[in-house]
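queue> pop job 88
queue> type: inverse folding (structure -> sequence)
queue> payload:
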């Protein structure tokens, strides 16, 4: 074993520009493979507070390498209350380089693993199998947070020599399942397996999705597409599996829904780098939807800072209903008001579980989409059009309609074309929500609140208004409040029905 010492960020550091702050450290070299089965090098260094977002360790890989294996550790000193401690993410890029959006990406595990390997026929979950070609590879370190004492790390790199295995051709899930024609389909578009920081296999997630009454799910691993080739066996006539990614930047997370198989979306930028639009367009070119996730989450780097100009929808409800979801719901409602005021397109809302491991519940919440069939394209079109509502489980079903006096009617995500003073009847049918309260919300706020539904959980609530009084109406289903003036947690909510002529 040979050792090297980076000794902190010093003279051998070369700063890289054009994306989030990054630097490249001194190169780790290996001797010729002649007569060797395996070689190991260990490097150590210390990163100070205020370190760049990404630190690259170049590794010169000689010819004849069969496998690259990397293990790492770092210190976790005690820190004062309220001060972030050390957290160091890791991944790797091959000889094609680390250019933003380039072809060199070979895997990312964030902070979920302490070691990984890459070879032609296999790789650690989160990493991409493929040829190990000679050249300069880069181990990518992401100092997510650094303690005041600094972050000391140790990386052990092992090269195994020999003939490379056969590259396995990936098989992806089909883009169509056996649907029911034009119908309401239930899905969960934000899930994590062991191909990022989850603990469940794709097969386990698919079984939980079926048990939750879901018709479709979306693969959304953090900053890697490595799971795409591992979902085919979990799909079936009863479950459509879309492929995507959760793009986890330092200024917020965005879920790509239903991209082409094998699509990788880079995450190494902040809002100030003005790069997000480029990658939002990449998601769309790959046939996907751009959906900012948990925009008001309180975890470091989770709060959404890129604006919503590129969003196809927004994840308003993420996992168990919490105060940051309530803020996201209010923020989204403000965006609806702005769209009415400015006469521009509106952004639909979604909900997903963001499930990682037990006891996280797959399908709570879930987005229920009116689509022409159970296909990738039809589901995406329904989400993009806002023909959807969000429910805490498959037990809850909603049907919201608005009708005028001459037989005009419109449903969720649609517009009721009536004159400003034409009487409008808003009707909500509910099942599966015992003791919940219905609220009708408009651009003026909450204008109607029902009595609690019966213990059976079923009921019909009607309200009358006009387009001059309410530019849109959306429904909320709330559980009983624990105490005080605040509303109870959501059981379901709908996208709006718009009223009046544009």
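queue> result:
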């Amino acid at each position: 074993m040979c050792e090297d010492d980076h000794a902190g960020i010093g003279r051998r550091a070369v700063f890289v520009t054009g994306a989030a702050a990054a630097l490249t450290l001194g190169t780790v070299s290996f001797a010729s493979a002649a007569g060797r089965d395996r070689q190991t090098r260990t490097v150590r260094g210390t990163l100070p507070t205020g370190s760049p977002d990404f630190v690259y360790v170049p590794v010169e890989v000689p010819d004849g390498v069969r496998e690259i294996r990397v293990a790492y550790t770092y210190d976790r000193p005690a820190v004062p209350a309220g001060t972030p401690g050390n957290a160091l993410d890791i991944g790797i890029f091959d000889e094609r380089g680390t250019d933003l959006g380039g072809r060199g990406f070979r895997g990312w595990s964030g902070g979920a693993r302490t070691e990984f390997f890459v070879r032609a026929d296999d790789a650690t979950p989160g990493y991409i199998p493929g040829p190990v070609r000679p050249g300069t590879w880069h181990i990518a370190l992401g100092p997510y947070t650094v303690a005041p004492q600094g972050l000391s790390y140790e990386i052990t790199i092992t090269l195994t020599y020999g003939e490379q295995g056969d590259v396995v051709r990936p098989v992806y899930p089909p883009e169509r399942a056996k649907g029911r024609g034009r119908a309401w389909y239930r899905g969960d578009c934000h899930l994590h397996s062991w191909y990022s920081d989850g603990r469940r296999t794709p097969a386990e997630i698919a079984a939980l999705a079926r048990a939750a009454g879901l018709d479709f799910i979306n693969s959304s691993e953090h900053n890697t597409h490595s799971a795409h080739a591992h979902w085919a066996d979990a799909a079936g006539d009863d479950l459509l599996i879309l492929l995507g990614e959760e793009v986890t930047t330092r200024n917020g997370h965005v879920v790509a829904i239903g991209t082409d198989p094998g699509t990788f979306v880079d995450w190494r930028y902040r809002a100030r780098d003005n790069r997000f639009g480029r990658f939002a367009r990449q998601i769309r070119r790959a046939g996907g939807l751009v959906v900012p996730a948990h925009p008001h989450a309180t975890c470091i780097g989770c709060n959404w800072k890129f604006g919503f100009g590129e969003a196809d929808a927004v994840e308003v409800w993420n996992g168990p209903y919490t105060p940051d979801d309530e803020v996201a719901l209010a923020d989204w409602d403000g965006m609806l008001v702005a769209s009415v005021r400015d006469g521009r397109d509106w952004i639909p809302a979604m909900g997903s579980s963001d499930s990682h491991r037990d006891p996280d519940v797959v399908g709570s919440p879930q987005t229920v989409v009116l689509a022409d069939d159970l296909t990738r394209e039809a589901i995406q079109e329904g989400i993009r059009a806002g023909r959807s509502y969000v429910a805490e489980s498959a037990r809850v079903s909603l049907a919201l309609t608005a009708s005028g006096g001459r037989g005009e009617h419109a449903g969720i995500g649609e517009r009721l074309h009536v004159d400003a003073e034409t009487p409008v009847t808003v009707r909500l049918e509910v099942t599966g929500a015992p003791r919940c309260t219905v609220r009708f919300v408009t651009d003026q706020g909450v204008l109607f609140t029902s009595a609690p539904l019966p213990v059976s959980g079923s009921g019909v609530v009607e309200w009358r208004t006009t387009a001059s009084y309410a530019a849109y109406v959306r429904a909320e289903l709330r559980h009983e409040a624990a105490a005080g003036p605040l509303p109870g947690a959501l059981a379901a909510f709908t996208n709006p029905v718009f009223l009046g002529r544009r």
